[in-house]
Design goal:
53% strand, B9 domain-containing protein 2, cytoplasm, cytoskeleton
Length: 175
């Protein structure tokens, strides 16, 4: 079997207007991929920085997959939240990134966005901090479904990954 080992960290965030951020992350794979070791999801701590607009998380990632195909390769789904002045945790944005399959070190800048909906939804967001969320974020994994969503750009999440691949050439997967 071919093996893919992903080691790295959800490093931080930049260009968000809010300063008290946290991030939930998920790795999604399709049929033909099996996880051997590691956790496919996690959550960072809250990062609070009064002086800059950047948050630092440095939350570790360590996954080991086996596969016989390149189809449905791992995708990273990110959800960013903030804590407001009243202590509420509020959803801010989504981000999706295809995990590279070639061995090496990668610094991924995952640009995030949020759904904006109708004018009424935008008023709720502006005055009450109630942002639209998807019922199932896993719909973001299929790129065709994302094109129908009206969105607004948010900040960027930085992810550092070391990718190690083994035996992909034996199964017809040339890197």
């Amino acid at each position: 079997m071919a093996e893919l080992h992903i080691i790295g960290q959800v490093s931080g965030a930049k260009n968000f207007k809010q300063s008290r951020l946290l991030c939930k992350w998920y790795f999604y794979v399709g049929n033909g991929w099996k996880i051997i070791l590691g956790h496919e999801e996690g959550q960072t701590q809250e990062s609070y920085d009064l002086y800059t607009s950047n948050s630092v998380w440095d939350h570790p990632i360590d996954l080991h997959y086996t596969t016989q195909t390149l189809q449905n390769s791992p995708k990273l789904l990110l959800q960013v939240f903030c804590r407001d002045n009243y202590g509420r945790i509020i959803f801010l944005s989504y981000g999706v990134y295809n995990v590279p399959l070639s061995p090496g070190f990668y610094i991924l800048d995952c640009h995030t966005w949020k759904p904006i909906g109708t004018w009424k939804d935008r008023l709720f967001d502006k005055f009450l901090g109630k942002c639209l969320q998807l019922k199932s974020p896993s719909v973001l994994i299929n790129a065709l479904d994302r094109y129908e969503i009206l969105t607004q750009s948010m900040g960027t999440v930085i992810v550092n990954l070391h990718i190690m691949a083994r035996n992909f050439d034996k199964f017809g997967c040339q890197m």
